Every structure is written in structure tokens, then in C-alpha cells.
């Protein structure tokens, strides 16, 4: 089934089709729909009718009580009940461009999402009500967002700039350039909330004094692409880079331990601070669990496709893994096995043409690889997949 589609209708549509859509080739359908191909010239006349599926997904976060998962992606933010992944997910879709990052506050009552539309959206996590929209006066794509441990601040990263807002009033309190050499890919507050770390794409970690709103230094690193960051203890940070695995480091730059350099590029990181474990995902679809103190992997699990994101549940009994193949998996970290899987979280194929039947009952989607899909508009069901043969 095609997982994510915007259904669009032109205000003026031509006459009805001479043949049923299911009996036609993609070329015939396109000819019969002449005048209704979506182009730059008529795009302003489109009206959004419905949205099916969940789009491409890029980030996830657990609620503090461990019962919900928030997934950010091209169709906005989706909230899943962990006890029933197949139940309908609650969509939060106020972003006008894809959601890129997501984070809960400390009690799970609020959720912040960062989008490519230069805004942060704050939601009531219980009912999905949009509470606040925090905007910046320039085009931004918030690669990472975070609540401070006391929920007083919201932090967001755009390219190499760190922004801090007052969480209650929505007032922008600080705008800091962490480093001019590389963008920020991840943020993490210290447990006490007085400091904030920003991982850069070159592996360096910028340290910020939150109270004084000032960048205080950089933790060095061997050149490697930054992937993930966590701050599990006051004087211990965990950094993951694509080519060098993961390392625990101190704010003064001292490296304490590390691992995960197993050949495939590291793509995701999550840390169980209480249990002393590190989870690392890679481009080959492996998820490896390591002792935080360093050493060989405790377990290795293989998933379907490169791992995009990992997140331990609050009690660390479950590890959520999002893969590029469009699968959200829940891993039992004690039994070291996959316990639940939701396939089709996202679909990467891009539509080349979208044509709506004049009576509004069916939609034709064509792709650049010669495939086409025919959908029933009312129910969003896939009726037929067509392949162009010549």
C-alpha cells in the first residue's frame, strides 16, 4: 500500500473518463487526464482533501512514562501507543514542512517538534492540541530539539546556531553560534540543566553555559561525522561518530571508554544511563548493545535496513529502532530480541505526477521509475499498481 499521499483537487476539472481507470495503462490515464496534471502553473489552485499514511520518518522520542512514542517525519508528528503499535496513530500536522526533531518534557505533558518550516511547535501530548508556535525571523531547519531537565527552557539547533526559548512564555532568550566550522546535529542537557552540549557534524562537542547563555568551549575529536549525543552523568558525555563508533568523554576532553567501530558506519545512538549500556545502530541494519564502561558488544540484533534512530524507553527495558526501510521495531533489551514491529512507517518513493479523476473518486499517482498507483480517494485504499512496459 502507498503509505503517504497528499490528495489534491483542482478547482476546475474536465469531463468524465471514457474507460474505467483500472482498465487503462499509465499512458492512457495521463492522456485522459489532460489538463489536470499538477504543475507550477496550476499549483495555486490545489486544495488539500486528505492525507494517507505517515510519510518519511527521521526521529523518535519516548514519553517519560514509557507508554507513547513520538515519530517526526515528512507528514508531521505521529503519536503511537507502545502497547498497540497497530492502533491508529494520532497525527500532529501543523507543520507546513516536514518535522525533523521531537522531544517530550520531563513529565510527558508536552511535546515539542522542530520543523523545516522555521518553527517549533509545542503540543499538549495528551490530546494533541497545539499550544504554542515558536518562530525565528529567518529560514531554519531544526535538526535537534530538547527540553531542559526542569522544563524551563526549550533548546533547538539550526545549522551552527543554538537557540534557547523560555518554555512558558515562548520568548527567545538566546541565539548562540556554537562553532563556525560545522553544523549541529544533536543536543543534550547536563543532568543538572546548567550546561548544554551540541554535537557538530565534524565530531566536536560545543559546551554552553545555559545560565550565562555563552559558549564555553569545544571538546575535541578525531575528524568523523557526528551522529549521536547523550549526557548521562554530570562529568560524562557519550558521543557517536560514523567512522569511529562511540566514546565516553569528559567536559575537559578526556576520553574514558569506547567501542562500536565494527566496520559499518554508525548511524544512531541511545544510552541507558542507569543500566550502564550504550545502543548503537549502523548502516547495515545492526543494533549493538555495549557496556557503558567499554568492551565488546553484549548483543547484536539485525533489522531490515539502515538504522535511522534509536531510543531507550524510560526504564530501558525496550529499545525503539527506526529503520530506513520504513519499519519501527521494539526490542526487548533483556531477552535481546524483537518483540513488536510496525512496517510501513514511511515510504521513500517520490511521486512524479498526480491526477484526480473528475468525479473525485480515484487518484492516479505516477512515479519516475515507470510504476503507477491507483487509489480510491474515499478510503485511501490501493486499488491497483500499474507498470509501464513501453
Overall description:
Helix content is 2%, strand content 52%. It is mainly β and 390 residues long. The strands form nine sheets. A four-stranded antiparallel beta sheet has the order 3-4-5-6, with no helix packed on it. Strands 7-8-9-10 form a four-stranded antiparallel beta sheet, with no helix packed on it. Mean pLDDT is 77; it is low at 1-39, 46-53, 346-354, 364-372 and 377-390.
Task: Give a quick set of tags describing it.
390 residues; mainly beta; 4-stranded antiparallel β-sheet; 2% helix; disordered C terminus
Mean pLDDT: 77
Helix content class:
under 10%
- Sheet of most strands: 4 strands, antiparallel
**Principal-axis shape:** globular
- What structural category arises from helix and sheet content? mainly beta
Number of strands: 34
List the total number of helices: 1
- Calculate Rg over CA atoms: 23 Å
Q: What amount of the residues lies in strands?
A: over 45%
Are there runs of 5+ residues with pLDDT below 50, and where?
1-39, 46-53, 346-354, 364-372, 377-390
End-to-end separation: 24 Å
Quick description:
The chain has 390 residues and is mainly beta. It has one helix at residues 26-32, and strands spanning 5-10, 46-52, 57-62, 68-73, 76-81, 90-92, 99-104, 110-115, 119-124, 130-135, 142-147, 153-158, 161-166, 172-177, 184-189, 195-200, 205-209, 214-219, 226-233, 236-241, 245-249, 255-259, 266-272, 277-282, 286-291, 299-302, 307-312, 318-323, 327-332, 337-343, 351-356, 362-367, 371-376, 381-387.
Amino acid at each position: 500500500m502507498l503509505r503517504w499521499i497528499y490528495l489534491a483537487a483542482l478547482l476546475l476539472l474536465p469531463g468524465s473518463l471514457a474507460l474505467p481507470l483500472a482498465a487503462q495503462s499509465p499512458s492512457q490515464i495521463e492522456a485522459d487526464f489532460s489538463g489536470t496534471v499538477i504543475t507550477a502553473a496550476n499549483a495555486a489552485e490545489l486544495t488539500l482533501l486528505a492525507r494517507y499514511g505517515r510519510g518519511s520518518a527521521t526521529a523518535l522520542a519516548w514519553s517519560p512514562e514509557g507508554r507513547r512514542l513520538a515519530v517526526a517525519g515528512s507528514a508531521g508528528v505521529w503519536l503511537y501507543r507502545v502497547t498497540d503499535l497497530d492502533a491508529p496513530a494520532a497525527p500532529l500536522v501543523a507543520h507546513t514542512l516536514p518535522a525533523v526533531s521531537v522531544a517530550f518534557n520531563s513529565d510527558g505533558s508536552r511535546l515539542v517538534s522542530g520543523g523545516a518550516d522555521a518553527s517549533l511547535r509545542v503540543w499538549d501530548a495528551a490530546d494533541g492540541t497545539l499550544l504554542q508556535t515558536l518562530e525565528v525571523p529567518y529560514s531554519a531547519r531544526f535538526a535537534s530539539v530538547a527540553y531542559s531537565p526542569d522544563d524551563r527552557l526549550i533548546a533547538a539547533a539550526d545549522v551552527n546556531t543554538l537557540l534557547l526559548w523560555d518554555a512558558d512564555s515562548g520568548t527567545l532568550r538566546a541565539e548562540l553560534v556554537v562553532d563556525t566550522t560545522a553544523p549541529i546535529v544533536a543536543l543534550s542537557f547536563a543532568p543538572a540543566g546548567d550546561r548544554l552540549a551540541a554535537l557538530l557534524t565534524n565530531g566536536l562537542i560545543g559546551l554552553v553555559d545555559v545560565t550565562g547563555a555563552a559558549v564555553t568551549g569545544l571538546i575535541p575529536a578525531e575528524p568523523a561525522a557526528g551522529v549521536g549525543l547523550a549526557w548521562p552523568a554530570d562529568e560524562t558525555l557519550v558521543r557517536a561518530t560514523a567512522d569511529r563508533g562511540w566514546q565516553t568523554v569528559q567536559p575537559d576532553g578526556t576520553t574514558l571508554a569506547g567501542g562500536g567501530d565494527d566496520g559499518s558506519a554508525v548511524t544512531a545512538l541511545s544510552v541507558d544511563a542507569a543500566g550502564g549500556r550504550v545502543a548503537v545502530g549502523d548502516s547495515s541494519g545492526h543494533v549493538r548493545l555495549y557496556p557503558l564502561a567499554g568492551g565488546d558488544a553484549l548483543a547484536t540484533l539485525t533489522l531490515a535496513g539502515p538504522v535511522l534512530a534509536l531510543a531507550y524507553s524510560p526504564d530501558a527495558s525496550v529499545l525503539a529502532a527506526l529503520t530506513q526501510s520504513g519499519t519501527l521495531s521494539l526490542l526487548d533489551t533483556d531477552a535481546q530480541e524483537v518483540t513488536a514491529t510496525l512496517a510501513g512507517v514511511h515510504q521513500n518513493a517520490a511521486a512524479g505526477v498526480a491526477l484526480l479523476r473528475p468525479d473525485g473518486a480515484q487518484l492516479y499517482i505516477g512515479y519516475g521509475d515507470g510504476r503507477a498507483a491507483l487509489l480510491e480517494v474515499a478510503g485511501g485504499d490501493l486499488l491497483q499498481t500499474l507498470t509501464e512496459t513501453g
